[in-house]
Each structure stands twice: as structure tokens, then as C-alpha cells.
């Protein structure tokens, strides 16, 4: 991912590309798994204050760039949204969130045949999220 592409991604989601926003977006794109606030702080080598990181994440989420990933440890983790799936109006992150039991990382996995639900009448489905646990590719290869 080049800087120009990060620039464009931010602009497409109505976010003015500042240096720190580009850096944080780059972290998400290159990480391959979901990142928490603390992860980002560490990756930035504590060179960025917490409030700026917090606001950046909030803004990214609002504008459809990243989505919250369910984590059973109650820590908010975020992952980058698929290229054109999400906007400031709506998130469409219908994919599997896979938690690795060994490294603890959470991965967004695209799977074929996401289950469709038939709800009792009167219920309106806006969002569906699917979670799974197991061993990720990288840990599996090290076993
Ligand atoms: Zn999204
Ligand atoms: Zn793993
Ligand atoms: Zn995801």
C-alpha cells in the first residue's frame, strides 16, 4: 500500500489525510488482524497521544473505514473494512471473525455462503456477525 492509496482511501471516506491518520490506516492495512487501542499505541512507539488515537479510531469507524470486532476480553479491537463495503451511513462487515487460541489475534475472514437467517415475523435484521475460534494459519504452520 503506497501513501497515495492511503490518501485516496481517506478522501473517499471524507477524511482529511493528515500524517497521523495515514500512519494509523497503514497499520490497519498492513497488520492482517484486528488491532486494539493499546496495540496501536505500541506500534506507534508511544509517539502519539492517546486522545488523538482515540479520536482517529472513532472517526474512522464513523466514516466506514474500520469496524469494531467482537473480543471476549472486553477490549475494543478494530479491523479495516473491505474496500467499498462500508460508508458513513452503513457498515457491511458480514464476514467471519476468527479468534486464534494461540496468538490471540482476531482475523476478518471472507467465507463463502454466509448463513442466512430466517427470523420470526416482525423482526428486522440489520447486521449479522459470525464468530469462530481455532488456530490461525500462521500458528498452524509453526506447530
Ligand atoms: Zn465496515
Ligand atoms: Zn495464531
Ligand atoms: Zn471484520
Explain this structure to me?
With 143 residues, this protein is an alpha+beta fold. It has one domain: Winged helix-like DNA-binding domain superfamily/Winged helix DNA-binding domain (Arc Repressor Mutant, subunit A). 34% of the residues lie in helices and 17% in strands. The protein has a 3-stranded antiparallel sheet with strand order 1-3-2. A 3-stranded mixed sheet has the order 5-4-6, with no helix packed on it. Helix 1 crosses helix 2 (19-31). The longest helix has 13 residues, at 19-31. The chain is globular. The relative contact order is 0.13. The mean pLDDT is 91. The structure holds zinc ion (3 copies).
In short:
With 143 residues, the chain is of the alpha+beta class.
Secondary-structure-derived class: alpha+beta
> Which stretches are poorly predicted, pLDDT < 50 over at least 5 residues?
none
CATH topology name, in short, is Arc Repressor Mutant, subunit A
Query: Which ligands, by name, code or SMILES, are bound?
Result: zinc ion
- The number of distinct helices, counting runs of at least 4 residues, comes to 5
Distance between the termini: 30 Å
Amino acid at each position: 500500500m503506497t501513501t497515495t492509496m492511503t490518501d485516496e482511501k481517506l478522501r473517499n471516506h471524507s477524511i482529511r489525510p493528515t500524517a497521523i491518520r495515514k500512519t494509523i490506516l497503514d497499520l490497519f492495512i498492513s497488520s492482517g488482524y484486528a488491532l486494539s487501542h493499546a496495540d496501536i499505541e505500541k506500534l506507534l512507539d508511544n509517539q502519539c497521544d492517546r486522545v488523538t488515537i482515540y479520536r482517529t479510531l472513532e472517526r474512522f469507524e464513523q466514516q466506514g473505514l474500520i469496524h469494531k470486532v467482537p473480543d471476549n476480553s472486553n477490549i475494543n479491537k478494530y479491523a479495516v473494512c473491505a474496500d467499498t463495503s462500508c460508508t458513513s451511513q452503513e457498515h457491511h462487515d458480514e464476514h467471519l471473525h476468527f479468534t486464534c487460541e494461540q496468538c490471540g489475534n482476531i482475523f476478518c475472514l471472507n467465507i463463502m455462503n454466509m448463513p442466512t437467517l430466517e427470523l420470526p415475523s416482525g423482526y428486522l435484521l440489520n447486521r449479522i456477525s459470525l464468530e469462530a475460534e481455532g488456530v490461525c494459519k500462521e500458528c498452524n504452520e509453526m506447530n
